[in-house]
Amino acid sequence: xxxxxxxxxxxxxxxxxxxxxxxxxxxxxxxxxxxxxxxxxxxxxxxxxxxxxxxxxxxxxxxxxxxxxxxxxxxxxxxxxxxxxxxxxxxxxxxxxxxxxxxxxxxxxxxxxxxxxxxxxxxxxxxxxxxxxxxxxxxxxxxxxxxx
Length: 148
Known about the structure:
Strand order of the largest sheet: 2-1-6-5-4-3
Number of strands: 6
CATH architecture: Roll
């Protein structure tokens, strides 16, 4: 647990230094990265209320299997009784601020059971966040499997 906290502190420090060097708002980048971690936790816990709060109403997701989903479809998939996520973590993330937009790229790992079958997925993602009405909201997300 202590090592996880240390990793988070180092990650936030590195992000802050990178953002400071590029002239970006380090608080915005830190906030968006925290929202990325909140997304992982909400998905693990099937907390669609939390997900609803961080997704823009017009959000579009290109899922790991190439399926295109709008926000309502993504949340419905999360609520499904056939989906049982167990672990969702991010191995690495990089955030770049461009005006009122933050683009996050990284690597994710997911494990769980879906339709009675265990799965383990690892892939790259790109999430785009926009500052709207005083909040950071994810407007697009795309995941690509890393094949071994």
